[in-house]
Amino acid sequence: MATEKKVTAIKNTPKHLLGIQNLSVLAAKEILNEAKSFIKLNRGSSKKLDVLRGKTQINLFFEPSTRTQSSFDLAGKRLGADVMTMNMGNSALKKGETLIDTAMTLNAMHPDIIVIRHQDSGAPNLLSQKVNCTVINAGDGRREHPTQALLDALTIINRKGNIEGLKIAICGDILHSRVARSNIYLMNMLGAEVNVIAPKTLMPEGIDNLGVKSFTDMKKGLDGCDIVMMLRLQNERMQGSFLPSKREYYEFFGLTPEKLKFAKKDALLMHPGPMNRGVEIDTKLADDINVSLVKEQVELGVAVRMACLKLYCK
C-alpha cells in the first residue's frame, strides 16, 4: 500500500519545482521522506549512486551562491548525473543575450534538468515554458526558494520529530525574503503556527493574509516558539532607506541569548545563511551546538536536493 502511495505522489508531482505554492501536501511529504533516505548515505564512506546515470544536469546561477549552488552540484554528482555548472558572469548574457535565447541554446543540448537561480521573480517559470526538460527553482527574486524551505522542514523534523503543532517564528527582512515566503507556505501546509517578526519597513503589506501572525515586537513574536528562523538583511534588494542603522537593528531585531529566553526553553534557532553576525544574530548563539541548527541545515540541504533531483528527473 505504501508503494502505491509513493507512485501516486510522484506521478501527481508537477514536472517542474517552481515553488512551494505549486506543491501538494502529498508531494512535499514525498520529497521529505525521500530526503531522509539520503541522510545516512551522505554520512557514510561511500556516497555515490547511479540513480541519475546518463542524465544531464545544468546549474544556471545568475546570482552569487555558495550553499545552494554547491549542494545542487554535489547532489547531482552523488546521484551519478553529468553536472555542468555555468558561470553566468562570463556568459553571452553580457553580450546582450536574453534569458529566452539562453534557454533555447541550452534546450538544444538536451539536458534532463536545469537548476536556476535568478534575480528576477518568475524567471524559472519563464524558463520552464521554453525548455523540454525539468526546471528546479533555486531562488527567484523575492518570490520563492522552495528547496530551502524543504531543507528547513527536514532539519526541524530531524530534531523535533514533526512540524505539526509547532510554533515557528520567522524574523528579519520579511519584505525582501523568498526564504520567508516559501517557509510560510510550507510550514502552514505541514500544520505549524507561524509568527513573522520585522520592523514595519521590512514587513510586507497584507502579510497576515498568508495565514501568519505579524509582530513588530520581537519579544512578543518569540513568545512560546519552538523554532526561531533568522533572516539575512537583503541589502542588495533594498532601494532607499529601510533601517536607521545596523546597530539599532541589532538592538531591536537581532537574536541574542536574552531575546531567545522569550521562546520555549528548548527552542532551536535556524538561519539560511550567509549570516551577518552582530547584525541579525549573536555570534556565540550562532555557534552554540545546543541551540543552533545552522550546520544541520547545510548538511541536510544536500539530502533534500538529492531527493528533488531524483523525483523530478524522470
Structural class: alpha/beta
Q: What best-fitting shape do the alpha-carbon axes yield?
A: globular
Largest sheet: 5 strands, parallel
Compute the CA-based radius of gyration: 19 Å
Number of helices: 12
Mean pLDDT: 90
Strand content: 5-15%
Determine the fraction of residues in helical runs and give it as a percent range. 25-40%
Any low-confidence stretches, pLDDT <50, length ≥5?
1-8
Largest sheet: spatial strand order: 7-6-5-8-9
Distance between the termini: 22 Å
Query: Which oligomerization state do the chains in this entry correspond to?
Result: single chain
**What is the string of SSEs from the N terminus onward?**
HHEHEHEHEHEHEEHEHHEHH
List how many beta strands DSSP finds: 9
Protein topology:
Layout: H1 2-12, H2 25-43, E1 56-61, H3 67-78, E2 82-87, H4 99-107, E3 113-118, H5 123-128, E4 134-140, H6 146-160, E5 167-171, H7 178-189, E6 193-197, E7 213-215, H8 218-222, E8 227-230, H9 246-253, H10 257-260, E9 268-270, H11 283-286, H12 294-312
Parallel strand pairs: 1-2, 1-3, 3-4, 5-6, 5-8, 6-7, 8-9
Helix pairs in contact: 2-6, 2-12, 3-12, 6-7, 6-12
